[in-house]
Automatic annotation (TrEMBL):
Biological processes annotated in GO: exocytosis; muscle organ development; muscle system process; negative regulation of insulin receptor signaling pathway; negative regulation of insulin-like growth factor receptor signaling pathway; negative regulation of myotube differentiation; plasma membrane repair; proteasome-mediated ubiquitin-dependent protein catabolic process
Name of the protein described by the UniProt record: Tripartite motif-containing protein 72
Keyword Membrane assigned: yes
The enzyme's E.C. designation: 2.3.2.27
Gene for this chain: TRIM72
Gene Ontology MF: a single term: ubiquitin conjugating enzyme binding
Organism: Cavia porcellus (Guinea pig)
Superkingdom of this protein's organism: Eukaryota
Catalytic activity: S-ubiquitinyl-[E2 ubiquitin-conjugating enzyme]-L-cysteine + [acceptor protein]-L-lysine = [E2 ubiquitin-conjugating enzyme]-L-cysteine + N(6)-ubiquitinyl-[acceptor protein]-L-lysine
Keyword terms: Cell membrane, Coiled coil, Cytoplasmic vesicle, Disulfide bond, Exocytosis, Membrane, Metal-binding, Phosphoprotein, Transferase, Transport, Ubl conjugation pathway, Zinc, Zinc-finger
Residue span(s) of domain B30.2/SPRY: 271-474
Length: 477
């Protein structure tokens, strides 16, 4: 078969079934296929009714395609050539050209475009290539297996993507729902305050209005009397005039001062919105974790209250630590009984005016014996106060990082932990309506942690103040 007829045969063959076109259709992208082949591999239509082109993935609408009559006629003409014969010389296809990988006739092999190529008799080529068929099938099966794995991975990713989106929507709904509840409650509270102010103001204004109307009526009565006196005889005029003017001076002297009401309501300004945001930020924190100190972990100098929410350092000499490796023997510290291993957590610690302390979390596997190295690489993520004036973060460095001095030192510290986001944040929680960020670690914790509390040495009574855990219902410590 010469190059030109062979090229024509290739051009008139469907790239899917590798046979001459049967009812060919041409897509918008220019590629052509048998109508049946396109329907078989096109898959389920997308929402807009399109399927991807098998060759270039361009979208097309098979239902609106009509048969390409020109291609169909060409295929019909090519089909008239006897099967197994050269289209150009009409001789049997008896020679296999290894170079071009095609069957040709004897004329094409000896005199035509395949002259000088590597040629084999068709029977020998058939026997040789048939032995290669299993290898070709194996390669095809391996390719199918790889693609099936790719399909499985993509399908899994599709499920994961859907789950991620659903989780995101759920989180959005949950968080915005909390915001709406907070704003609805705040709106109700402000409206009730406005109603109270209006009620009180209304009573005061009506009282003032009644007094002014009564006084105004007196003035009108005096005016009426003056009009009546004007036409009286001399003696009666003088008698009544003196009486009326004397009364008038008294009434004028008793004139009530103008009313001045001071309506005390919040000003809806940018600052008001900022204050609302701060209150909402605190309200959206997870509920206070109900933590208790673990007495078995406490340094011998520490005394934990019966309720487990208060700890302080004794000034008298304490006995040495026991053999229990869960107990701190050098650091004057204690951990909570609760082990945190996932999700979000928030707790608050009352530090008062205690001049030295450190708070944070400790890896469950971190050692407690001996001198502690307060760095994240050693399983401690801490914020502390030194000498009653310097807040410092115990970052991965030779010395703790001193933080910018706040306007006031916190008397209560809030600690927020999110395992999912990799955040450990410390807040000044002294204001019941707002939280002020002091410092945050941004790293994913390697595993479960215990809330950690370094009470520090009592320093001959200078640092004897206790640490106290806040709870949702403040009560027995």
């Amino acid at each position: 078969m010469s190059a030109a007829p062979r090229l024509l045969y290739q051009e008139l063959s469907c790239p899917l079934c590798l046979q001459l076109f049967d009812a060919p259709v041409t897509l918008e992208c220019g590629h052509s296929f048998c109508r049946a082949c396109l329907g078989r591999v096109g898959g389920e239509p997308a929402a807009d009714g399109t399927v991807p082109c098998p060759s270039c993935q361009a979208p097309t609408r098979p239902q609106v395609l009509s048969t390409n009559q020109q291609l169909a006629r060409l295929v019909e003409g090519l089909a008239q050539v006897p099967q197994g014969h050269c289209e150009e010389h009409l001789d049997p296809l008896s020679i296999y050209c290894e170079q071009d990988r095609v069957l040709v006739c004897g004329v094409c092999a000896s005199l035509g475009s395949h002259r000088g190529h590597r040629l084999l008799p068709a029977a020998e080529a058939h026997a040789r290539l048939k032995t290669q068929l299993p290898q070709q099938k194996l390669q095809l099966q391996e390719a199918c297996t790889r693609k099936e794995k790719s399909v499985a991975v993509l399908e899994h990713q599709l499920v994961e993507a859907e789950e991620t989106v659903q989780q995101f929507r759920g989180a959005v709904g949950e968080q915005l729902g909390k915001m709406r509840l907070f704003l609805d409650a705040l709106e109700g509270s402000l409206n009730r305050e406005a109603e109270r102010v209006w009620s009180e103001a209304g009573v005061a204004i009506r009282r003032e209005l009644a007094g002014l109307n009564s006084y105004l009526e007196q003035l009108r009565q005096m005016e009426k009397v003056l009009d009546e006196v004007a036409d009286k005889p001399q003696t009666e005029f003088l008698m009544k005039y003196c009486l009326v003017t004397s009364r008038l001076q008294k009434v004028l002297a008793e004139s009530p001062p103008p009313a001045r009401l001071d309506i005390q309501l919040p000003v809806i300004s940018d600052d008001f919105k900022f204050q609302v945001w701060k209150k909402m930020f605190r309200a959206l924190m997870p509920a206070l974790e109900e933590l208790t100190f673990d007495p078995s972990s406490a340094h011998p100098s520490l005394v934990v209250s019966a309720g487990g929410r208060r700890v302080e350092c004794m000034e008298q000499k304490a006995p040495p630590a026991g053999e229990d490796t869960r107990q701190f023997d050098k650091a004057v510290a204690v951990v909570a009984q609760q082990l945190l291993s996932g999700g979000e957590h928030y707790w608050e610690v009352e530090v008062g005016d205690k001049p030295r302390w450190a708070l944070g979390v400790m890896a469950a596997e971190a050692p407690r014996r001996g001198r502690l190295h307060a760095t994240p690489s050693q399983g401690l993520w801490l914020l502390g106060l030194r000498d009653g004036k310097v807040l410092e973060a115990h970052v991965e460095a030779k010395e703790p990082r001193a933080l910018r001095a706040p306007e006031r030192l916190p008397t209560r510290v809030g600690i927020y932990l999110s395992f999912g986001d990799g955040v450990l944040a410390f807040y000044d929680a002294s204001d019941t309506d707002a939280l002020t960020l002091l410092f945050a670690f941004h790293e994913r914790l390697p595993g479960p942690v215990y809330p950690f509390f370094d009470v520090c040495w009592h320093d001959k009574g200078k640092n004897a103040q206790p640490l106290q855990l806040a709870c949702p219902e403040e009560g027995e410590a």
